[in-house]
């Protein structure tokens, strides 16, 4: 919902600031979670961004003109194993 809110925002600057912050926080949370599990000798369950969150962030960055980040997210999406669908390309 936060990524979708960034897409719907009318203030481009604020939307891109919040979307970037949101993306960075999710990635940092994933790193901390993965490291914590490895140190506990637990089985590895990495935190990862969900399919629809990628699509919402791609839409938000695309709508507000950050084409570079849009394509970076699409590349990252495929690198983690998600296959882009019609929502990703729309």
Describe the model:
The chain is mainly alpha-helical and 90 residues long. Helix content is 72%, strand content 0%. The chain contains 5 helices and no strands. The two termini are 18 Å apart. 20% of the residues are buried.
**Distance between the amino and carboxyl termini:** 18 Å
Which structural class best describes the helix and strand composition? mainly alpha
| Mean of all residue-level pLDDT scores | 79
Task: Give the biggest sheet.
Answer: none
Low-confidence stretches: 33-45
Write a concise synopsis of the structure shown:
With 90 residues, the protein is mostly helical. Helix 1 (2-8) packs parallel to helix 3 (51-63) and helix 3 (51-63) packs antiparallel against helix 4.
List keywords for this structure.
72% helix, globular, 90 residues, single chain, 5 helices, mainly alpha
Give the SSE layout.
Blueprint: H1 2-8, H2 12-39, H3 51-63, H4 67-79, H5 86-89
Helix pairs in contact: 1-2, 1-3, 3-4
């Amino acid at each position: 919902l936060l990524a979708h809110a960034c897409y719907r925002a009318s203030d481009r600057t604020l939307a891109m600031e919040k979307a970037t912050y949101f993306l960075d926080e999710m990635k940092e949370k994933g790193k901390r979670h993965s490291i914590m599990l490895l140190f506990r000798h637990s089985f590895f369950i990495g935190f990862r961004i969900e399919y629809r969150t990628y699509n919402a962030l791609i839409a938000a960055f695309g709508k507000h003109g950050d084409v570079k980040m849009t394509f970076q997210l699409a590349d990252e999406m495929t690198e983690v194993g998600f296959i882009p669908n019609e929502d990703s390309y729309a």
